[in-house]
């Protein structure tokens, strides 16, 4: 039997072999494509079970009347808990204290982080050791920090009072945690002291990524140190500062341990943030439904910080496009 021109008997076998090779190559490649999804699956399950589901349950519980000791079914009350919350004057005071505390912690913590990052960005002897020492507050657990500062601020034998008594005109030990303004100020300072090393380390990494040629060009043009900082340093790390502002706002907004152990929300509610109010409402007064409504309000307030950050990032991306 003859063959047509240009036809080879082995061409079919070669084509079949190539097809099998392609099919064999597709299987490992498809597995490699599925590997990222398999690796991220435990994280997604963790988020759904331990974060998303409790948020959904809290949101649902804010529309109910939950009585744990009662055998009656859960009663659906609609917006009654929210009406009670918005008509409660103490709720607005808690929101005010929370916002004041959050803003002050952001300013102090990021300000201290920026100053220390600028110092550690300059070469000097012992910089590595000093940087390690600076990170100690971030490494300390919050419970020992609260206990240590309770001893430091003690009106009877606190170290701070020994130093203050050296000031002319001060003949009595100040009650640091009993005066509203002083208590709030100390809570801000202690919280900022605890977290500023992390912000300093992040800002330092951002500063080290700025090309030195830009600073050299600015010096050639006659710019002084302040102009270099305002025109080069700040714009170069502005994205990092915005991100740290969001992180600092979320961290200070949910701060609980230091506030609860040192003041418990006092004196006169001047250090009672919304997180402290939620805890007291749920686990001291056992009003779980109202605590759920407070939790939803706190969630919305913290979500606003994230929305502002996303808006700034979108606007910056449009400007750079």
Strand coverage percent? under 5%
Kindly provide the radius of gyration, computed on alpha-carbon positions and rounded to a whole number of angstroms: 30 Å
What is the helical fraction, as a range of percent?
Answer: over 70%
| H and E order | HEEHHHHHHHHHHHHH
Give the averaged pLDDT, no decimals. Answer: 85
Shape: globular
Largest sheet: 2 strands, antiparallel
Separation of termini? Answer: 68 Å
**Lateral strand order in the biggest sheet:** 1-2
Oligomer: single chain
* Total number of strands: 2
The poorly predicted ranges are 1-5
Number of helices: 14
Task: Briefly note the structural class of the backbone.
Answer: mainly alpha
Describe what you observe in this structure.
The structure is a single chain. This protein is mostly helical and 321 residues long. The chain contains 14 helices and two strands; from the N terminus they run αββααααααααααααα. It has helices at residues 11-61, 80-86, 89-120, 127-134, 136-139, 142-152, 159-164, 180-208, 212-220, 225-236, 238-253, 257-262, 274-283, 288-320, and strands at 64-65, 75-76. The protein has a two-stranded antiparallel sheet with strand order 1-2. The longest helix has 51 residues, at 11-61. The N and C termini lie far apart (68 Å). 21% of the residues are buried. Residues 1-5 have low confidence and may be disordered.
